[in-house]
Amino acid sequence: MINRIDSLGALAAIIPILKSAIPADLSIALCDREKFLAYWPGEEIDLNIQAGQPLHAEEPLSMAMSGDTALKAEVPAQYYGFEFIGTATPLHDKEGRVIGGLAVQLRKHSELIGIADRILRSLSSANEQILQIAQGSNGLADVTGELLGLSDEAERNVKNTDAVVSMINEVADRTHLLGINAAIEAAHAGEAGQGFGVVATEIRKLSKQTVDSTRSIQSTLGSFRDVTGKMAESIELIAKTGQEQALSTQRLSSLIDEIRAMSEKLNEFAKQL
């Protein structure tokens, strides 16, 4: 048997050396037939075994010694909070009698696999949300494009209205001139032209009211033109922002795809450990 030793104390002296020489995070427990003699915890795996702690009959070490056979088992996380692989090996003296046991616990990398899986799920969810944002950005760009077209049309209509107002002004000026000429002719006609003079006066009043109204319309149209101009600038800014957002989400989506590919490789690597 290769697991024959001079004494448990001699083995305990060399276990720390062997443990430090092994490139893995593990813990080692040494016991006699009744109790634990020593325990060397790992950096991330510690079962909190104390020297002098008695062995229970159902423990792997007790079973390995009573059956004189080496045992190996995967211990689920529900017992110690993390998953590990444990071995229990009986130790013999020079005559082949079982005098103790050696247990080794090696941390499994299932947590690494779990982390990689969670990363993949999170990235998939994030990518779906980013795609929704990108679709929203594209929709926003379409809407702002339509609004910008409507704003341009409104500005053109304002310009057309300016032309109509200018025409009304011209008609009012001519009407006013006509009223003045009519008043002059009424004065030349004397008493016979008094009725015609009243009509001329009313024509000039109407002309003045028309001029005042067109000035008010022009002022209102000017304000409306300023508003539509500012609205057009705002819409252009929104459209530009939407386009930049769409490009940003596309770049972010590409980055997430790269991270997801790396996570898949990490998952494959962890399964091989």
UniProtKB/TrEMBL annotation:
Glycosyltransferase in keyword set: no
Keyword tRNA processing: no
CC terms in the record's Gene Ontology section: plasma membrane
PROSITE patterns per record: CHEMOTAXIS_TRANSDUC_2 (PS50111)
Top-level division of the source organism's lineage: Bacteria
All copies of domain Methyl-accepting transducer, residue ranges: 152-273
Family per record: Belongs to the methyl-accepting chemotaxis (MCP) protein family.
Protein name (database record): Chemotaxis protein
InterPro entries, sorted: Chemotax_Me-accpt_rcpt (IPR004090), MCP_chemotaxis (IPR051310), MCPsignal_dom (IPR004089)
Alphabetical UniProt keywords: Chemotaxis, Transducer
SMART domains documented for this protein: MA (SM00283)
A GO molecular function held by the record: transmembrane signaling receptor activity
GO BP annotations, alphabetical order: chemotaxis; signal transduction
